[in-house]
Each structure stands twice: as structure tokens, then as C-alpha cells.
Specification:
about 0% strand, single chain, about 150 residues, mainly alpha, rod-shaped, 8 helices
Amino acid sequence: MTEEEVRMFALNNGVNATPIGTPLRVLDPSELPASVRAFVNDDGTYKGDNTPEAEDPRHESSKGEEDADPEAVRKQPMDTLEDVEKKEVEIEEGPKKGKLPDDFPGHSALAGNGITTYAQLRKAGDVTSLTGIGPATAEKIAAALGEE
């Protein structure tokens, strides 16, 4: 294991270790399992990784691309709930999911009948039986669902 892998294991498992960017020091190495403890000296410092290259599948030659810079990852904007809902609607594989978009055909009439999601719309069946939905709007709804 690399020094950073030991540190991340310790921190993720509640074992006191020095923060990222400083030399590794584990406060109580006995809290580490034997598989990780093998890389730490008795004083809690990093011992090093002397695993032969052929035995270590994580060796540099087999790692592939380097991990993203943690600072850059932290600074990336997170999706809002609205973004996630829009992405759910935009998924083209299988039936559409999530809330009906505001520009969906007959949106206000559907909402007036308590239908606000694709699942509710599919469950409703013949939409011409709903108040405010005629044959022309029903055709537009079917087209929007991909059920022409």
C-alpha cells in the first residue's frame, strides 16, 4: 500500500492519522488490521511498500490513469435536485421517469387531474377520460411519451 492509501484507510475507519499533505503518522498502529499494519512502523510512521511488482495488482504499471486532483474534485459544482430530475426525464432508455416537464402537452390539465409524473400518466391509461384532455391533446401526449 502507498502512504496515502494507508492514511485514507486509517481516516475512513476512525483510526487517528496525520492529515493529507503531511508525513504519515498513525497514533495507535495496533488499531489497524494486519494487512494494513504491515506497512506501518511501531511508532506509527510509514514503513514503505516492498511488495514485489508482480504480486501487487495496484503497481504503477497497472494503475491506468492517475486519480483526479482532490482539490479540483472538491471545487466541481454539485447537481441540484432540479438538475437530477431533468436528467431523469432526459434518459432515453426505457420508459421516461420523473416529473412531467412544464412544457409537456396538456401539462396544466394533467396536473389538475393529479397527474404530475410519467408513472402516474402511464397508469392513467386513456387520457381523454380526464377533464380538459381531448383527442388532439391525447395524441400530443402519446407522441411525447413515444407511444405514437
